Amino acid sequence: MAYESKAFTVAKLATTPSLGLTVMHGGSRVERAAGIPISIERNGSLPKLHGGEIVLTSGRHIGEDWIAWKVLLSEAADAGVSGLIIGLGTEAAFERLPAQVLALASEYDLPLLTGDIADFGRMAHTIAVLHAEGQREALRRPLDLQMEITAIVARGGSFGDLLSGWQQRTEEPVAVFDRLGRVMARSSAFPSTLLAPLSERLAGREAPRLGEQLLVSATELVAGPDETSAGVEETVEVFPFAGNDTVRGFCVRIPTGQETAELAAPALRSLLALEFERVWFLDESARRKRAERFARLLTFTEPGSARTFLRSIGIDPGPLRGVSIEARNETHAEVLIDDLAVVLAAPFIRHRHRIVECLATVDPRKALADYGLDVPTGIGTRGAPEHSARSIRQATLALETSRRAGTPIEYVDGASHEFLISAAPSEYLEAFSIAVLAPIENSRGGEALLNTLHTWLLERRSVEATAERMGVHRHTVRNRMQRIIQITGHDLDGIDAQTELWLALKVRGFRDSAGTSPSGP
Predict the structure, then answer these.
(1) What would the DSSP string read from start to end of 138-173?
(2) What is the pTM of this model?
(3) Which pLDDT tens digit goes with each residue over 462-482?
(4) Cβ(92)–Cβ(60) below 8 Å
(5) How many Å apart are CA 14 and CA 31, to the nearest integer?
(6) β pairing state of 112-116 and 174-178
(7) What are the two backbone dihedrals, phi and then psi, of residue 222, each rounded to the nearest 5 degrees?
């Protein structure tokens, strides 16, 4: 049975025998919740009200001043009072309600009730008691609802059981999605036409973060007006539920506006988070087994043994790529273990304290960007299973750089100089470049000398190839290279000198594709 959203309304005042009230004008506000009683028996503006109060007056301070009555009812309506009770009798302003006052109540759509002025004291006390009881009932109902849906989970109920129980008790259609936007369960009344559009939004950048909610109309979600189901012309509320500081999934409701449901909704999200962890996350034995397989794969260096091992555990022996991630804390690392197993299609994944390592079968950059991960991340090169240990080592090196750079770093195989440049602090690189290249750059014809040196290194120290690429005579190249040797004091036949000059040129911005400097040919 569904819970009622209101326990004490203005309309119910007239049905309470001990009050002896008569509804003279109900209007559209008669079903509003009745608040605390307040008596007004003086001229001037109303005291500061918070809305929802029941105003009682004998009208003696106003009498037949119909303008004052107009001001009173106008201010009461603007203040949001839930109703006005006018006392009648010989000690009041009137023994019968004047037609002018009744007309004003109709004009301002303000519920108006009358009672015996002699009973005003008892009436105010009774209304206060009823209001307090209504407040207690309003607090009790969400608690009862929380206890009932908690019992569903405690009895081993599934996501579907929990959502069905919620719908039965609140009349609210509800669904739950995982953090990747995949439907996990829905109640029977939740429109199926909304599932695909919601999945698309939650899988993209529109998913709300912790502490946020997404409100969207059902008509905006469906592909066209003909697909909108009757009864779903409502606002759809999407709210994330979390474990610790990480989004686990999304609770989607079509709210009915019931106060009880609104107050109990946080409990529903908490139960969903607990149930998600119980059902979705890997148990400890499965994690250990996955970590053991990971460690074993890293020991294989021969193609045959690595691929035979993968086939023996039912995994396609295709290319793998090492990924190393520094989680915010160990709890976050445990969450990432389960999420990334899906996001990266990673058959091998483990964590050691805050560091999560895995071997991914998909492009980690795109997958992690879609996932929204914003922690230091290193990515190794893609290779055959027997090179998994090497890829993990590369990912670990890249992770060190990612901590400083504040962005995911990918180790590029065969371009270690690029990686070293990205790994070093910019201030150090600038100083290194100046120290190595300044003698050449500051000499006569320095720009031409730098271009010649860069092209000579690109062309594997071939004078003829350098001259052809630069469009100059080979004697010009020889003369320039001899001058560089004189300026720097380096023997350019040595690998150390070549490496130092090459790194300095890369830091300065020289490109591999052509013998040009950053400023041009």
Answers:
(1) HHHHHHHHHHHHHHHHHTT--HHHHHHHHHHHH---
(2) 0.45
(3) 999 999 999 999 999 999 999
(4) yes
(5) 12
(6) unpaired
(7) -75, 155
Three-point CA angle 45, 31, 95, nearest 5°: 55
Element containing residue 12 per DSSP (H, E): helix 10-14
- Show Cβ contacts of residue 28 under 8 Å, excluding neighbours closer than 6 positions: 109
Rounded-to-10 torsion of CA 128, 132, 134, 138: 150
How far, in Å, CA of 201 to CA of 206, rounded? 6
Q: How far is CA 26 from CA 103, 109, 275, in A?
A: 12, 8, 47
Question: Which residues does residue 289 pair with via DSSP β-bridges, in sequence order?
Answer: none
Name the percent of the chain lying above pLDDT 90.
Answer: 24
In whole angstroms, what is the distance from residue 492 CA to residue 495 CA? 8
Phi, psi of 501 (to 5 degrees): -65, -40
Q: What is the mean pLDDT of the chain?
A: 82
Tell which phi-psi region holds residue 321, choosing left (phi > 0), alpha (psi between -120 and 50) or beta: beta
Instruction: Provide the token pair at 289.
Output: 């087994």
Question: What gap in Å lies between CA 58 and CA 94, rounded to an integer?
Answer: 8
Contact 402, 409 (CB under 8 A): yes
Q: Which of 91, 136, 83, 90 is nearest to 111 (CA)?
A: 83
Each of the 521 residues of the chain gets a pLDDT tens digit; together they read 444 444 578 888 878 888 888 999 988 888 887 888 888 888 878 888 888 888 999 999 999 999 999 999 999 999 989 899 999 999 899 999 999 999 999 999 999 999 999 888 888 888 888 877 777 776 777 778 878 888 887 777 677 788 888 998 888 999 988 877 888 788 989 998 888 888 888 877 778 887 888 888 888 777 544 444 444 467 899 988 876 566 778 999 999 888 788 888 888 888 888 777 665 555 667 778 888 889 999 998 888 888 899 888 888 888 899 999 999 888 788 778 877 877 777 878 888 889 999 998 888 888 787 677 889 999 988 889 999 998 998 898 888 878 877 888 887 765 555 656 665 667 767 877 887 888 888 888 889 999 999 999 888 889 999 999 999 999 999 999 999 888 887 778 877 778 788 888 888 888 765 444 444 33
Asked if residues 278 and 249 have their Cβ atoms less than 8 Å apart, the reply is no
What secondary structure does DSSP assign to 232-248, as a single string?
A: --SEEEEEEEEETTEEE
Q: How far is it, in rounded angstroms, from Cα 232 to Cα 209?
A: 25
Residue 133: helix, strand or coil by DSSP?
helix
Burial of 65 (0-12, 13-18, 19+ CB in 10 A): middle
